[in-house]
Amino acid sequence: MHASRTDSRSFRTTHRPVRRTAGSRAPRALLLLLLLTAGTIAGPAAPADAAPSYGAKAVVVAASKEGAPYAHGATGPARFDCSGLTLYSFRKAGRPLPRTAEQQYEDTDHIPRSKRAPGDLVFFPDGSTMGHVGIYAGDDKIWHAPRPGTRVRLERIWSGDVRYGRAS
Questions:
Q1: Which residues have a Cβ under 8 Å from the Cβ of 30 and sit 6 or more positions away?
Q2: Can you give the pTM of this predicted structure?
């Protein structure tokens, strides 16, 4: 019984909870990584339907940039425009992308909505070109840098007129 009490005290003194300051972005990124990992353990989509591992990594990178301000033409690491965030996130994950949303659309394999997976790119057409891009995070949400005056954020896809691309 005494050994049990000693073990208990030892655990309390060496295993203290990690305290985060208000506004810390790490918990959300960690949660996202855990959810992506849990999905893989629980039973991933068929290989043809799954985004490559760098797509999942790009989601985590984008999530880590939550709150970074929008700046036209910016590619990080502190400021982003929409395609700058996708370029930065995928480059950090090991897959380079071209600079603009239109070029990124042309550089990806186009997939139907039914095949989308976290880490795929979501494109928003504007006339005959792609005017906006974000990274699909699952649950009908994307990480993106919306427009001047806003910050990188997770947001529900607001339009039915989108295209999906997989960077393979």
A1: none
A2: 0.72
pLDDT digits (tens, 9 = 90+) for 139-159: 999 999 999 999 999 999 999
- Gap between the Cα atoms of 66 and 45, Å rounded: 27
Share of the chain above pLDDT 90, in %: 67
Which of the residues 2, 15, 72, 82 is marked catalytic? 82
Cβ neighbours of residue 31 closer than 8 Å, sequence gap 6 or more = none
- The answer to whether 55 and 45 are in contact (CB under 8 A) is no
110 is catalytic: no
| Known active-site residue 15 | no
Residues in CB range of 144: below 8 A, 6 or more apart: 82, 85, 132, 133, 134, 135, 152, 153, 155
Select which of 15, 72, 110, 132 is catalytic.
132
Q: Are 122 and 136 in contact (CB under 8 A)?
A: yes
The pLDDT tens digits for 109-145 are 999 999 999 999 999 999 999 999 999 999 999 999 9
Q: Out of 2, 15, 110, 144, which one is annotated catalytic?
A: 144
**82: annotated active-site residue:** yes
